[in-house]
Amino acid sequence: MKKCILLALLAFPAMLRAQHTEVGLFLGTSFYLGDLNPKGLFKQSQPAFGAMARYNMNWHWAVRGQVTIGWLKANDALSDDPAQIYRNLSFKSIVADFSATLELNFLRFRPGDPKTPFTPYIFGGICLFKFNPKADISDSTYVFGGVPYFVKGGSYALQPLGTEGQNTPDNQLQKYSLTQVGIPFGAGVKFNVGEHFIIGAEWTFRKTFTDYLDDVSGNYADPIKLAAQNDGTSAALSDRSIPNPLEPASNIGRQRGNAKTKDWYSFAGVTITYKIKRKAPSCSAYKYRTTKDKY
Length: 295
Description:
Helices cover 12% and strands 42% of the residues. The chain has 295 residues and is mainly β. The chain has a single domain (2-286), classed as Porin. The strands form 3 sheets. Strands 1-2-3-4-5-10-11-12 form an 8-stranded antiparallel β-barrel. A two-stranded antiparallel sheet has the order 6-9. It has a two-stranded antiparallel ribbon with strand order 7-8. The longest helix has 16 residues, at 2-17. The protein is elongated, with a radius of gyration of 24 Å. It starts with a helix and ends in a 20-residue tail after the last strand.
């Protein structure tokens, strides 16, 4: 992976010198799908932005590199599902995403060419992303195994706390990595606006291979062992459930999340790119003379 990133960085200056290259910005929104938001498209959407470079190889094919920063969050308390409301978990995270994708234009398209005004397109590729789920808690004293633990209020990174018992003596789970690989894919439409600007709108999903974007995947750990291994903060953030008279008093070993599914995240928004100016032709009348024959 490091070699691929290095090659991409070395190739970037060459792309900027190419006559069919665009550079620009992405502005939009991001949201997450997972244990705390199983199916709510655009639910609790957050802002996202990025920078991109696109090289147009011919009429229909282009390659693109993009760096995107987005915010993700979800809260069981906002769910319509009573089981989620009782579970009462929440998280927030910044996701930093580096993607390399291949685009397919449905129509013939060349940046800045008035004879190719627009095209819908689809794209797919690979991405490397970094995330760090956190949760907020207020000042409070918790008692685990008869031992009181004072937990100072604040925002805590969840992965180091091992909230599902990771790295405790009787649990074989290892702490999940905060850097992961995903598969981006999506669709959009783009328009030539004048000689140099291209404006587009697109929606993309990221399929991930982790179930821990939200720090929720498996079963409830024993809070006494969590508190002894890490501290009271880990135990307090592991189980924040509201007492339910229809359920057992103890959650130890019960399902906390669905380990059979993986998490997703999505970006949607607009792209604004600038076609890097090439050397002017000797006669402006022939600027796009090859539009019908040659890219």
